[in-house]
Amino acid sequence: MATKKTKTQKTELFQQETGWEKLTAADNVAMEKYCQDYISFLSKAKTERRAHDIALALAQKAGFRNLDDAKTLKPGDKVYRSCYGKTLFLAVIGKTPLEQGLNLVGAHIDSPRLDVKPRPLFEDSTLAYLDTRYYGGIKIYQWLTLPLALYGVIVKKDGSKVEVAIGDEPGDPVFMCTDLLPHLDRDQDATTVGKAFNGEKLNLLVGSRPVDKANDDKEVKDKTKLRILQLLKEKYGVEETDFASAELEIVPAGPARELGLDRSMVIGYGQDDRVCAYGALRAILDAKGVPSRTRATVICDKEEIGSYGNTGMDSAFIENSVAELVAHSTGGYNELFVRRALANSSMLSADVSALHDPMYADVSSPNNMAKMNCGIAICKYTGRSGKGGASDASAEFLAQVRRVFDEAGVAWQMSELGRVDCGGGGTIALYLARYGMNVLDCGVGLLCMHAPHEVAGKFDIYMGYRAYKAFFEA
Ligand code: MN
Ligand code: MN
Questions:
Q1: How far is the CA of 363 from the centre of ligand 1 (A)?
Q2: 211 alpha carbon – ligand 2 mean position (Å)
Q3: pLDDT for 144-167, tens place per residue?
Q4: Could you write out the DSSP letters of every residue in 142-173?
Q5: Which terminal CB of the chain, N or C, has fewer other CB atoms within 10 Å?
Q6: Residues 134, 452: Cα–Cα separation, whole Å
């Protein structure tokens, strides 16, 4: 008797491939082009204000107009709304009524840095310094002995605004925070990293030459500081008290670059989270057709210090922007429609993930950590310890998103923020989830997150853009 052949169902192992195996020749060309554009953006967008301005200029060039000037909105219309020049909302109106929800991608454009204090200038032993307070989670020692640039605004009492940008143009001087020489660091060496470096010592060296003899006022004690003030007056017309109404940010000097002999990575300041912000921006600019659901990108400020304040995602900015959309769409304003529009929305919280770093494998979760150049990292939950503070995305929404990614050929991988109980972090996800919308964290993986120079893989950078675009076009 012959054995009857039974048809067995094939069980597939879930194998993580690297992105390179999936990359077609055409995709390779598109990836390299996209990454060159990104490197140029990252080199210029050194602060949230500059990232906002560059994004707004690109949007205006692509036909986005100010939502505050819009009378009525119809499908296909492109609008923007700016929040104090630091947070930007972009929308392309869809065919379905807004109350059925939007497809939203949100990223942040503020990055860890040193902020100049309101009364910063002082002299010690003939050296002049700017006193700073760090912004966001930094490892203090990483910011020592680096060439640093100074960016921001000084607003004078009459309301006039002076733009400051020193350190990135050819011929510009740069600045630095000093560190102890190894010859004299025996005490520093014997203590812990946390004790050896303290934030109050992050003072920016800005001068060492006293006022000229001709201008010397014998009464003045701090002659180096006085000369710095004279130079600031000459260049910007500002007085020492004008620092009180200034926002000056100290960031690493120099452009973003390709990294590696094979040029497969990008090194640069502020990739958390300008890598996802640029992807979210380019995705809404490049996504094809008049959408079914309204598309929106928001690139926001203040994520690194908790999303508070009127330019952070804890503010009413998103709610007000959606209310404006509803008010100007056919059907007129209806508060219930605003609530429904928000609750029925789907959102990708586009923020960076920590990559598995083989040099620090002891804090990795072996099978649940994103790996370099394996695709966009999906983080179902962030938080610390037992998912503390996480906005845990639903399995149902995650299934929808991975289907969209698969259908568009987007390489993705699941990721957690490291080994259990090693630390943690958060994103803007929870501030949007409070409206009832589905929110999922997904973004580009980084090595050395929050360091003055962070590293991302080119394949992942490109897949971030492709993922957000697929989400808009779905
Ligand atoms: Mn981030
Ligand atoms: Mn961050």
A1: 19
A2: 41
A3: 999 999 999 999 999 999 999 999
A4: GGTT--EEEEEEEE-TTS-EEEEEESSSTT--
A5: N
A6: 12
| DSSP characters over 405-460 | HHHTT--EEE--SSSTTS-EE--SHHHHHTTT-EEEEEE-EEBSTTSSSEEEEHHH
Q: How far does the centroid of ligand 2 lie from the alpha carbon of residue 272, in Å?
A: 5
The tokens 């060159």 sit on which residue?
36
How far, in Å, from the CA of 304 to the mean position of ligand 1? Answer: 7
Q: Do 454 and 313 share a structural domain? A: yes
What total number of domains does the chain contain? 2
Do the domain assignments include residue 140?
yes
**Side chain identity at residue 445, one-letter code:** G
The pTM of the full predicted model, rounded to 2 decimals, is 0.95
In a domain, 7, yes or no: no
Domain with residue 86: its CATH number is 3.40.630.10
Q: Give the end of a domain, one of 220, 252, 284.
A: 252
CA of 203 to the centre of ligand 1 (A): 25
Phi, psi (degrees; rounded to nearest 5) at 454: -105, 160
Q: What percent of the chain lies above the pLDDT cut of 90? A: 88
Residue 206 is given by DSSP the state: E
> In the predicted model, what is the mean pLDDT of residues 444-466?
98
Residue entry with tokens 């380019």:
282
- CA dist 459 and 465 (Å) reads 10
The protein residues having their C-beta less than 5 angstroms from ligand 2 (an ion) are 272
Residues 360 and 410 in one domain: yes
Q: Is residue 15 part of a domain?
A: no
Query: For residue 291, how far is its CA from the centre of ligand 1 (angstroms)?
Result: 28
Burial class of residue 12 (count of CB atoms within 10 Å of its CB; 0-12, 13-18, 19+): exposed
Do 315 and 434 reside in the same domain of the chain? yes
Same domain, 104 and 120: no
User: Residue 439: which residues within 8 A CB-CB, separation 6 or more?
Assistant: 347, 348, 349, 391, 393, 397, 429, 430, 432, 433
Q: Are residues 45 and 84 in the same domain?
A: yes
Residue range 381-410, pLDDT digits in tens: 999 999 999 999 999 999 999 999 999 999
pLDDT given for residue 194 in this prediction: 87
Domain that holds residue 127: 113-252
Ligand 2 midpoint to CA 183 (Å): 35
Length of the chain: 474
d(CA 422, CA 420): 6
| Residue 153's CATH number | 2.30.250.10
Q: Are 121 and 229 in contact (CB under 8 A)?
A: yes
Indicate whether 4 belongs to any domain. no
Among 217, 252, 287, the domain-final residue is 252
Residues 160, 39: Cα–Cα separation, whole Å: 32
**95 and 160 share one domain:** no
